[in-house]
Design brief:
The protein is α+β, with helices and mostly antiparallel strands. It has two domains: 126 residues, MutM-like, N-terminal (N-terminal domain of MutM-like DNA repair proteins), CATH 3.20.190; 126 residues, Helicase, Ruva Protein, domain 3. The chain is 22% helix and 21% strand. The protein is built from five helices and ten strands. A hairpin with a 2-residue loop joins strand 2 and strand 3. Helix 2 crosses helix 5. The protein is elongated and about 55 Å long.
Amino acid sequence: MPELPEVETVRLGLAKSIVGQVFKVPRLLHPRGLNPKSEVPVAALAGAQISSVHRRGKFLWIQTNEQLALVAHLGMSGQFRISQPEAHIHKHLRVLFPLSDFHLGFIDQRTFGWVSVGQAHGGQVPDLVSHIALDPFDPNFAPKEVVKRIRASNREIKKILLDQAIISGIGNIYADESLWLAQINPQTIASALSPKKVERLLSLATQVMASALAVGGTSFDELYVNVNGESGYFERSLNVYGREGQPCPRCSGPISRIAFANRSTHYCFSCQK
């Protein structure tokens, strides 16, 4: 959290608001706001004009005309927020980016997110993002190849869905929702699933993330909002995630929560076999 729909919502908001703006001198306000692998300090962006905003999986990058890119990962609670220069400083502001007409702030309460600055020529994927697999919304995403990679694994299917080197953008929420829609137990070994079942699972994951994106993503609290501070509304449409003990919308059996893949997993014991 945030996952692909939330990060894409942020990207769309940034693309609408900041393209054409010029960076003044950015200020790092917390050392953990900058990734240690950053090639240069954030101040190196001063004078660069923003040309485009991109995303792969859960990663964002802001491309400039100076062949520098500002890469960001939102972690658990990272936010980009637009504000006026006279606005009060948010207590969890980690990096401040004064722009031509307003301020862009990177806010992160839990400090698991980060920004980084590095070389990225036109159309090039920054080094910090190059290891991330394509997500289902990428025009070059090849479902049949991903199906083969998933079925070649002897790991549990939920662990595979969360593996950003195989398919990116899916996190805990949308993995649970997709597996419920496909009626697959999250602990099922991936190689035991037929190609048709895996292909359907990928299709359902794409559909559920598209539905979430249409309503601005999922917000359980103030830790995820868009660039204008607005919440997403997909939480109202969740079938299993966060619904422990409630009746399954499909079979009325109780929704279970187990500790799995280092996080909570929600599924229906009755109809996810």
